[in-house]
Amino acid sequence: MSEIKYKRVLLKLSGEMLGGQEKRGIDISVLDEISNQIKRMLEAKAEVAIVIGAGNFWRGKKEDEIERTTSDYIGMLGTTMNGLALQSRLQKNGIDAILQTAINADAILVGKTIDGVYSDDPKINSAAIKYDNITYQDILNKDLKVMDLTAISLCKENNIPLVVFALQEPENIIKAIKGEKIGTLVN
After folding, report:
1. 137-152: per-residue pLDDT in tens?
2. 128: burial class by Cβ within 10 Å (0-12, 13-18, 19+)?
3. Is the pTM above the cut of 0.70?
4. Are 52 and 15 in contact (CB under 8 A)?
């Protein structure tokens, strides 16, 4: 593997992706593929921290259905469940892994079901425009649904680049740490 651009990364994975074709629950084959790619990242001498969403368990609900704070706690439990499942698969595949809550990183890698940041949801709006590069401020100003706006603000404050890419192509994880042009770069 050629020299990597990002030596310390936070890999943000979509919980929905862990559900495989069903997009719910946990698909062990998806965990194994991700585990293999993480192993390759480590072999390339990258330091990797991982955050996993909970979309395969909980998508959040309207406040009139479930109180917002309760909904947030349910999502956090789903995230913990996904983290424990991935930790288990990593350990089974010979990779030391520990579930933690706070990380410092050179970049945050955001693996999603779509291949970057768009002006609108491309699954709903076929005229949505994909951005190759975008600033944190543009994401905030346009209220784009890349990830939680508070997280975007924190990345902006700490000047941590985001690389948003399609996780459906597992090789994109390796391409991202090499700094290859994939998805959308947010800085």
Report:
1. 999 999 898 887 777 8
2. middle
3. no
4. yes
